[in-house]
From TrEMBL, chain A:
GO function terms (MF aspect): oxidoreductase activity, acting on NAD(P)H
Residue stretches making up the FAD/NAD(P)-binding domain: 6-293
Residues of the Reductase C-terminal domain: 333-400
UniProt name for this protein: Putative ferredoxin reductase
Coiled-coil spans in chain: none
Gene Ontology annotations for the cellular component aspect, listed alphabetically: cytoplasm
Domain of life: Bacteria
InterPro entries assigned: FAD-oxidoreductase/Apoptosis (IPR050446), FAD/NAD-bd_sf (IPR036188), FAD/NAD-binding_dom (IPR023753), FAD/NAD-linked_Rdtase_dimer_sf (IPR016156), Reductase_C (IPR028202)
Keyword set, alphabetical order: FAD, Flavoprotein, Oxidoreductase
Gene3D superfamilies, per the entry: 3.30.390.30, FAD/NAD(P)-binding domain
SUPFAM superfamilies recorded: FAD/NAD(P)-binding domain, FAD/NAD-linked reductases, dimerisation (C-terminal) domain
Named cofactor requirement(s): FAD
TrEMBL record, chain B:
Keyword list, A-Z: 3Fe-4S, Electron transport, Iron, Iron-sulfur, Metal-binding, Transport
PANTHER family noted in UniProt: FERREDOXIN
SUPFAM superfamilies: 4Fe-4S ferredoxins (SSF54862)
Function: Ferredoxins are iron-sulfur proteins that transfer electrons in a wide variety of metabolic reactions.
Domain of life: Bacteria
Species in which this protein is naturally found: Sphaerimonospora thailandensis
Protein name per UniProt: Ferredoxin
Gene3D superfamilies, sorted: 3.30.70.20
InterPro entries, per database record: 3Fe4S_ferredoxin, Fe-S_cluster_ET
GO-annotated molecular function: 3 iron, 4 sulfur cluster binding; electron transfer activity; iron ion binding
Entry keyword annotation includes Electron transport: yes
Length: 403, 62
């Protein structure tokens, strides 16, 4: 029989860490157990598609600072959460253990979507080990096929090209980073990549990967057949074709898991007292825009959601007042490709039917505004770092920009 | 409170500026400048700045 209160955090990446910090900051003195399937303490993932592909980067270099307040958190690492009975407040681990708890934080995040085909030579970039494996194959002159032209695909393409690889990007859209940047800005960035020697084959998908049996008996990728009949040689394939929410362990609890975990406006899992979700697995309404619940895969979201969800959870446990202000984060992300710095504030995807250049020009440094019903809902900057604060403030305060 | 930014790691994202404008600023050249020994009353804001740094380049010494 447990005598102290226990919160289990399923997931030991950034969202799990921030949840633990926020529970302690809000005065929770009970037990916190965080469970992570990777063998590492929480670390920062954005460098994995950039610096960590160019030079060896260790876990030490990427690990998040552990504040003294979370020194007593129990980390169960290298073990997966495989199931849960939310009514009984029990979670089951891959090693056969059962953990009961008073409160549960769902922070199991996403995993990369995979395509079928020969295993060897095909990569994704999500974990430290993924980056290490890919780095070992990124040598000057190798043919790299990047599948997917979103931000991760474009960052990997830029890094691989900088390392001297020959890089081709295949994607179904008509411009890289089409969603959310829009056709014009996406095409302008395509030109920046092409100037550095990256080839884009857009409007196409992979019909099948081609392979052969390698020296070690492995089935190794040698190229791909595309939907239009084109055949490409490739030594290395990087798949950046979106992600899948790690929700299988919640099956059987009657939750809406159609796209991540459906939450209310306080990050409480719908209809579940004492269960909250944080990070990119949480699908929540953002009253800054409308009442539609959405998942947001931005770096700022684990920190923002953890701050709010921790207070919701403690209130559900009778340990706090909760939080009166609605959760209405301003999503933020960035991308580094070559020397280009892209920063996004707000929700450009919601304003993709009315896109305007606000400052600068698409061939150089530029600020692009995304509008819905005439109102600015998102801003993307290429360069122009000193303008960021002004546009961010305009989005936060919903003030019209001075003409 | 002592703030240290690893300037070899910092890439001038400026997220810290939004969290703690009293301590961190982006100068006209687009580079980060900061107050190395801010007042203790700013601790929460500086902790927030360290959290939101994309490169995790900010450390706080007591």
């Amino acid at each position: 029989m447990r005598t102290t209160r226990r919160v289990v955090i399923a997931g030991a990446s950034m969202g799990g860490l921030r949840a633990a910090e926020r529970l302690r900051a809000a005065g929770f003195t009970g037990e916190i157990v965080a469970i992570g399937d990777e063998p590492h303490l929480p670390y920062n993932r954005p460098p994995l598609s950039k610096e960590a592909l160019a030079t060896e980067v260790t876990h030490d270099a990427l690990a998040f600072r552990l504040r003294p307040a979370v020194a007593d958190v129990t980390w169960r690492l290298g073990v997966r959460v495989v199931g849960a009975d939310l009514d009984a407040r029990a979670v089951w681990l891959g090693d056969g253990a059962e953990l009961t708890c008073d409160g549960l934080v769902i922070a199991t995040g996403m995993r990369p979507r995979r395509l079928p085909g020969p295993a060897a030579g095909r990569h994704v970039v999500r974990t430290l080990e993924d980056a290490r494996d890919l780095r070992a194959e990124l040598r000057p002159g190798v043919n790299v096929l990047v599948v997917g032209a979103g931000f991760i695909g474009c960052e990997v393409a830029a890094t691989a090209r900088t390392l001297g690889a020959s890089v081709t990007v295949v994607a179904p859209e008509d411009a890289p980073m089409r969603r959310p940047l829009g056709y014009e800005l996406g095409t302008a960035l395509r030109r920046r990549h092409e100037e550095r020697g990256v080839t884009f084959l857009l409007g196409r998908t992979i019909a099948a990967f081609l392979g052969e049996i390698g020296e070690m008996g492995e089935n190794r990728v040698t190229g791909a057949a595309l939907s239009d009949g084109t055949r490409l040689d490739a030594d290395v394939v990087v798949e950046a074709v979106g992600s899948v929410a790690n929700t299988e362990w919640l099956d059987g609890n009657g939750l809406d898991l159609s796209d991540g975990v459906l939450c209310d406006g306080a990050l409480r899992v719908e209809g579940r007292h004492g269960v909250v979700a944080v990070g990119d697995i949480a699908r929540f309404p953002n009253p800054r825009y409308d009442g539609v619940p959405r998942r947001v895969e931005h770096w700022s979201i684990p920190t923002d959601t953890a701050k709010h969800a921790a207070l919701t959870l403690l209130a559900d446990l009778g340990l706090g007042e909760g939080i009166a202000t609605p959760f209405a984060p301003l999503p933020t992300f960035w991308s580094d490709q070559y020397e280009l710095r892209l920063q996004s504030f707000g929700a450009p995807a919601l304003g993709e039917s009315d896109i305007r250049v606000l400052e600068g020009d698409l061939g150089g440094e530029v600020v692009v505004g995304y509008h819905r019903d005439g109102e600015l809902v998102g801003v993307v900057l290429i360069g122009m770092p000193s303008a960021a604060a002004r546009y961010r403030a305009a989005l936060l305060n919903r003030t019209p920009l001075a003409a | 409170m002592k703030v240290i930014v690893d300037m070899d790691v910092c890439k001038d994202h400026g997220q810290c500026v939004f969290a703690a404008p009293e301590v961190f600023q982006i100068n006209e050249d687009g580079h980060l400048v900061y107050v190395a020994e801010p007042d203790e009353s700013l601790r929460d804001a500086v902790e927030e700045a360290a959290d939101v740094c994309p490169l995790q380049a900010i450390t706080i010494e007591d």
